[in-house]
Amino acid sequence: MKNVLITVILIVSVAITAAMGIRSFLYQRKRQGVDYYTKITPLSERKEKNDYFYKVKAFDKNGNAIKLNFYGMDGHPIKKGAYLKITYGIVSDGSNDVKRWEEVNKSSIPEKALEKIEKD
């Protein structure tokens, strides 16, 4: 009976430790952000006062879609046809949002994401 109790306690302890480790890993990944890819089209852009606002459908490396909103930089539009890598995750106030974006070469976009971008 004593051995069974020790075994159960050990299994529960290992399960709790594993669950906490997985939770920590997923939280850290979300904190760093997940990369999504998109292409800027004339329909993605809207001018607001002195800045440009973008609404895009973007895809992760596995081709999963998400809708993202973000602003351009310094009042200048992003060139039409540009491919972007957008990092989405937890920002300073604790909410999920676009953390950063950068223009990338088409060749650096993961294959599944590029297929979806070109189809869309």
Please describe the structure with a list of short key phrases separated by commas or semicolons:
single chain, 120 residues, alpha+beta, 2 helices, 36% strand, elongated
End-to-end CA span: 63 Å
Number of strands: 6
Topology as a string of helices (H) and strands (E)? HEEEEEEH
Decide which structural class fits the backbone. Answer: alpha+beta
Averaged pLDDT, please?
A: 85
Largest sheet, in brief, is:
3 strands, antiparallel
**Broad shape:** elongated
Short synopsis of the structure:
With 120 residues, this protein is an alpha+beta fold.
Describe the 3D structure.
The protein has 2 helices and 6 strands. The strands form 2 sheets. Strands 1-5-6 form a 3-stranded antiparallel sheet. A 3-stranded antiparallel sheet has the order 2-3-4. The protein is elongated. It is of the alpha+beta class and 120 residues long.
